[in-house]
Structure prediction request, 263 residues.
Amino acid sequence: MSLTTTMTDGAQIVKVNAERIDAAMAIQFKEDMRTETESGSERVILDLSEVQFIDSSGLGAIVAAMKQLGGGRKLDLAGPTPMVEKVFRLTRMDTIFDLYSSLSEATAPASANS
Amino acid sequence: MVKTFACSFTATNLDARTGISSVVSQLQTLGVPAARVDEVQIALTEAVNNVVEHAYADAAPGDVLIKAELSPEQLRIDIQDAGAPYPNEQLPDGTAADINVPVSNLPEGGFGWFLIRELASQVQYERSKGNNNLSLCFEIQVTNPPAEA
Prediction:
């Protein structure tokens, strides 16, 4: 799977270049996230705008990606499609992560600490 | 009018993805609204993931057979496999995972049956002649003309 990292002043933005985070790629996603975020900013923003489908394996992999960041670092989510947002809402994982409707909203100064 | 279609595939993650995608595109073609197709896809994927990860866990992956029956107000999906039965031939109750815990203890799994039970209006399971037969029903309002994917 392909992840692209962009460093900005306040955060590391990791974009998921895949339409699905499902059981077939959850383990790969988790490992790739570990590599991408091994060093970097305190705040990591995961850009999910290309992701059209996620299942519970993919959800678990995103949770794992946050856990492997360790204490003191934070994983925020940006640009979830309605389907992805639904899975986060149903499982109440929307209460664990900060979800921003778009990357620009996630990086806007006013919302940086919301 | 009732429409039926079916597909079968080997119980691997990649073949499951292809099989589920074919069911999804049929539902879109038949005019099931996009948001409802998403919900069906979530529940169906979780059910098939369970077959791949549990039913055939200790054996070579066997076949998964999916049959769908779309009537004007309901979609019924039957999923059959020849793998191991659910423990005690009972479905998990799908209790929501506890997420009121420190981040380091957050669950990375256990959402599957919760999602299936949230999204399907009816769930039935029967073990018969060495097969698992799982049926998921969804209330559906078919739109006409077909909704865009």
In short: Chain B has a mean pLDDT of 93.
